[in-house]
Amino acid sequence: MLDAKVAALLNDQINKELYSAYLYLDMSNYYNEEGLEGFQNWYYVQAQEERDHAMLFMQYLQNNGEKVTLEAIAKPDKVFTDHRMPLAEGLAHEKYVSSLIHTIYDAAYSVKDYRTMQFLDWFVKEQGEEENTADTLLKKYDLYGADARALYMLDNELAARTYTAPTLTL
Ligand code: FEO
Predict the structure, then answer these.
(1) Which among 3, 52, 72, 140 counts the fewest CB atoms within 10 Å?
(2) Which residues line ligand 1 (CB under 6 A)?
(3) Residue 116 belongs to what domain range?
(4) Whether pLDDT at 73 is above 90
């Protein structure tokens, strides 16, 4: 059994990760409507990764004998008015998710829950990578997005992203 606060935060993170998947699906749909199929693909793959993150938190709770409670997933409520907006929102969202992971880590640390800290290590690293990737994408868009040919090439680049299962297994 885990500390009650740690377990509650881990359970809540299932919902946060599923919301992340929902948010990225919304972005993927936006780019579909805009005819940018590479951007659409990139966020579709991102949504799959977020679903995987949710599953990992769920499995970790199950492996530790904790009850899992699934709550309602909030509706993504952003209205995207230009092609840059989802990229900026994505970066801000990943920074927010990093803060959530750090809060769980703090809670685990305070009760000497080394097992949960080790589990979260993968997510700490993953969040660093996700923030970096989102930041790079935004910078590329700011450099090239205003030029139609460059945007076409960037869209092609993003079309090449493929889904791979997470490296963390439980
Ligand atoms: Fe699962 Fe992008 O945080």
Answers:
(1) 72
(2) 17, 20, 50, 53, 94, 97, 130
(3) 4-159
(4) yes
